[in-house]
Amino acid sequence: MEKLIARGAEADIYLGRWGPLSAIYKVRTAKQYMAEELDKKIRRQRTVREARMLRAARSAVDTPHVLYVSQKKYTIVMEYINGKRMLDIIDKSPSQGKVMGEILGRLHMLNIIHGDPNTANFLFDSKKNKWYLVDFGLSYISSRKEDMAVDLHLVKEVVYVQHPTSFKEIMSGFYDGYMSVSGKMAGIVKKIDEIERRGRYARNRSFLF
Ligand SMILES: Nc1ncnc2c1ncn2[C@@H]1O[C@H](COP(=O)(O)OP(=O)(O)O)[C@@H](O)[C@H]1O
Ligand SMILES: [Mg+2]
To answer: Are 131 and 195 contained in the same domain?
Structure first.
């Protein structure tokens, strides 16, 4: 029997079993305001994309093993990560920003853009002493620095909104971590500048950057 443990904007997350294993069932739910056929198509696409990218990312970062995918049910069954979210620990230990930077840097070295790098998508399993990255429904392959810059910009926005008091410390650790693994920083920082000066993503918060 599966138990609902989280309800996001696009998916319900259940904790259940897969054979002998604890497993997460990520089920993409219908959006009432969308035309039915289009909604189904998008849910199918994101399900397939997420499963593919969860697997692809594994050569750079730890992600949950994909156990089963059902396009018909818009469902991914994956390994359960028994751990804490970055969201819940980073205000007490803002130096963990470095971990997020390292993980995103390693992903970018593989030319994978995450697409939604918020602090609820980094999970720490203390028994295994490992950080995992989840939520690849908006991920894609790209070697463009501008795409990587958008990922970094999203981190900034999210950290500012979710963790305003530790913002500076988290971001400074984040860049240390990112630079230590990616070596792509110089070009990307320039891109961030350009994007923000164009104002496409600034949304009146340009004072931050
Ligand atoms: N494999 C997993 N193991 C443990 N918890 C998970 C796993 N996948 C997702 N979760 C939990 O469910 C939450 C929402 O899942 P996520 O894939 O990020 O969906 P959403 O698109 O709704 O944000 C995550 O923040 C995390 O707390
Ligand atoms: Mg998420």
So the answer is: yes
CA contacts within 13 A on the Cβ side of 154: 17
Query: Pick from 79, 96, 116: which residue ends a domain?
Result: 79
Boundary of a domain, candidates 26, 61, 79: 79
Question: What's this model's pTM, rounded to 2 decimal places?
Answer: 0.91
Ligand 1 mutation pick, 46, 47, 54, 123, max ligand atoms within 8 A of CB = 123
Q: How many CB atoms lie within 10 A of CB 149?
A: 24
What is the distance in A from the centroid of ligand 1 to the CA of 134?
6
Which residues lie below 8 Å from residue 179, measured CB to CB, with a gap of 6+?
A: 101, 105, 185
Average pLDDT over residues 48-57: 98
What is the 90 CA–ligand 2 centroid distance (Å)? 16
Catalytic residues, which ones? 116
